[in-house]
């Protein structure tokens, strides 16, 4: 049997070629798919690069700078506040504040110390701090060790849930320089010092309601520290530097912008008169057993505020939390019913309208008056009184009859011209406008009671400003807390003749038989008016709580000062709670001391006064 012979090899064909597997043909669409995919990836990478380098360059630059660049602020020195004579009322002094970078610190376990040859492995490697160093640092900062440990261990989670520790954290603000020096002498890594300015108030609680105070960051919170913030604050400087991971400055990378200090604010306040007003107001409140009080002293010719006192007060140098009631500037922000201190304005309006004359006789008998269901009365039946007698004896009936002689719109117009129900534009924050209701809603009883100071609300500053009408020949002066070179023009409210007539009538109030004999001053003629008004409690007039006041001026011949005093809720024990008993003596002490300080020449002999004894019967005002 013969075996079949394999086919002969074709000429020119190698053995490898004869036995190689067939090579599959790659289809064209697969080639383009792979190429397209690779080109797409390249396009994405190119687009991302363009986005980061062109459109998002600022963000990346900021992120890069944040790793090593720091913009250091240079604090500006806050402007000083002085009184009219240049005496400092608010000053700033440099102090040191201690801060740390918790991100650059890691606390070692108890008993473990940092090796002396320790070196960071990378820029992000935090510096280890031992517990012994932490204990010394806490003692130097006068902080509990647990609190310092908590501060240096603080962290928060970002949007990705990662723990992030802050780069900056205050450890203690406003340290005395020597104490801060002791802290830095410990050489604790990651702890630094920064110069700041702390505000000090030499007069303390005496000036608190005028000057106000700043917060720990030096921003005004109350008083003129708040209203003149832009003027006093100045502008901080800046300096951009490169820092290494330990916080040391390597180099400056921009021009240093110097800080611009704040301007000095000179007030119209006289510090000596302010101390006097505060002291006498405090004494008067204690004597009367009252809960609070306020007093203001004006220059009778210019409207400048020479003193403004409120009690209770607070210490602006203290950082402790203060009851809001102590911060109230009662002279400007509190409103009250003025009572009989309103009567001079009604008499002036009646004289100006020609409805009465200085010699006019008004019947007040039988000492009371009934309008509809309401009855109001005087302390006794004074019979027939002229305008001066109405003011001297503080007759409610007489004032009401003069008020009712005028039309409602006319009387409202006078209230408006006197500045009631409107701002005094003193520039002080939170100033109250008071309230005078629209004349169209008045009923006869309301028109009558407003004539003796009920049913109308005012601030003590509004009342004091109103009395400038009687000290400036009918011209009401604007109120200002800024020292003036020359008086500003005022508003002519009534004629000079009318104003001068009422000014002389008000002198009788302080004479024998008047309600304010305790306001007399040796060697000076004094004019003014007492007020005793019931407080409104739960919508009704209380028979136990009063607000008593006295507003006056001196010397009568050429008024130099106006002093307004308001005492809140004097004790009613012994029925000695009237304006003439409680407020007039405070006025007398403030006015007499202020006239001496200013060197005002007397306009009366030293035998001009006849003060009643302490046991003399009280001349009352019915309210």
TrEMBL record:
Subcellular compartments: Cell inner membrane; Membrane
GO molecular function, one term: penicillin binding
Penicillin-binding protein transpeptidase domain ranges (all copies): 293-591
Catalytic activity: Preferential cleavage: (Ac)2-L-Lys-D-Ala-|-D-Ala. Also transpeptidation of peptidyl-alanyl moieties that are N-acyl substituents of D-alanine
Entry EC no(s): 3.4.16.4
Topology in the lipid bilayer: Single-pass membrane protein
One Gene Ontology cellular component annotation held by this UniProt entry: plasma membrane
Protein name as it appears in the record: Peptidoglycan D,D-transpeptidase FtsI
Organism encoding this protein: Iodobacter ciconiae
Primary gene name: ftsI
């Amino acid at each position: 049997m013969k075996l079949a012979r394999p086919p002969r090899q074709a000429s020119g064909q190698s053995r490898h070629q004869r036995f190689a597997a067939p090579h599959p043909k790659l289809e064209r669409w697969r080639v383009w798919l792979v190429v397209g995919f690779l080109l797409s990836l390249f396009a994405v990478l190119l687009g991302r690069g363009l986005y980061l380098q062109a459109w998002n360059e600022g963000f990346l630059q900021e992120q890069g700078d944040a790793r090593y660049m720091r913009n250091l602020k240079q604090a500006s020195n806050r402007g000083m506040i002085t009184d009219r004579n240049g005496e400092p009322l608010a000053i700033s002094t440099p102090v040191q504040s201690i801060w740390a970078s918790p991100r650059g610190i890691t606390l070692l376990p108890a008993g473990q110390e940092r090796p002396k040859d320790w070196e960071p492995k990378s820029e992000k490697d935090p510096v280890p701090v031992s517990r012994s160093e932490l204990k010394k640092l806490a003692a130097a900062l006068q902080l509990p060790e647990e609190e310092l440990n908590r501060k240096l261990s603080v962290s928060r989670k970002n949007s990705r849930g990662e723990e992030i520790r802050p780069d900056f954290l205050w450890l203690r603000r406003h340290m005395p320089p020597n104490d801060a020096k002791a802290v830095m002498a410990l050489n604790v890594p990651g702890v630094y010092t920064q110069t700041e300015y702390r505000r000090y108030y030499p007069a303390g609680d005496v000036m608190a309601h005028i000057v106000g105070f700043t917060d720990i960051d030096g921003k005004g919170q109350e008083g003129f520290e708040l209203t003149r913030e832009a003027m006093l604050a100045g502008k901080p400087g800046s300096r951009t530097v490169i820092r290494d991971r330990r916080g040391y400055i390597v180099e400056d990378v921009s021009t240093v912008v110097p800080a611009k200090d704040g301007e000095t604010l000179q007030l119209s306040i006289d510090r000596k008169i302010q101390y006097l007003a505060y002291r006498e107001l405090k004494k008067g409140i204690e004597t009367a057993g009252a809960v609070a009080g306020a007093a203001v002293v004006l220059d009778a010719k210019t409207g400048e505020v020479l003193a403004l006192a409120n009690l209770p007060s607070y210490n602006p140098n203290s950082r402790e939390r203060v009851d809001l009631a102590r911060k109230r500037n009662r002279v400007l922000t509190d409103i009250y019913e003025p009572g009989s201190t309103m009567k001079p304005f009604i008499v002036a309006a009646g004289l100006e309208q020609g409805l009465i004359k200085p010699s006019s006789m008004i019947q007040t008998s039988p000492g009371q008056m009934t309008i509809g269901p309401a009855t109001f009365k005087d302390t006794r039946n004074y019979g027939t009184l002229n305008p001066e007698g109405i003011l001297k004896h503080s007759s409610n009936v007489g004032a009401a009859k003069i008020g009712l002689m005028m039309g409602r719109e006319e009387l409202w117009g006078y209230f408006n011209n006197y500045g009631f129900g409107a701002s005094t534009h003193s520039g002080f924050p939170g100033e109250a406008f008071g309230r005078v209701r629209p004349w169209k809603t008045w009923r006869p009883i309301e028109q009558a009671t407003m004539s003796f100071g009920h049913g109308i609300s005012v601030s003590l500053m509004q009342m004091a400003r109103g009395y400038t009408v009687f000290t400036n020949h009918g011209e009401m002066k604007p109120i200002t807390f800024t020292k003036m070179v020359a008086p500003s023009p005022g508003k002519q409210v009534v004629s000079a003749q009318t104003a001068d007539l009422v000014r002389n009538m008000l002198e009788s109030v302080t004479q024998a038989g008047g309600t304010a004999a305790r306001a007399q001053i040796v060697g000076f003629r004094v004019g003014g008016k007492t007020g005793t008004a019931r407080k409104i409690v739960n919508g009704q007039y209380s028979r136990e709580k009063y607000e008593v006041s006295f507003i006056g001026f001196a010397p009568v011949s050429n008024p130099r000062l106006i002093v307004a005093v308001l005492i809140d809720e004097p004790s009613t024990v012994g029925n000695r709670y009237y304006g003439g008993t409680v407020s007039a003596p405070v006025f007398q002490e403030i006015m007499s001391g202020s006239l001496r300080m200013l060197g005002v020449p007397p306009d009366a002999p030293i035998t001009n006064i006849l003060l009643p004894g302490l046991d003399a019967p009280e001349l009352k005002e019915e309210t």
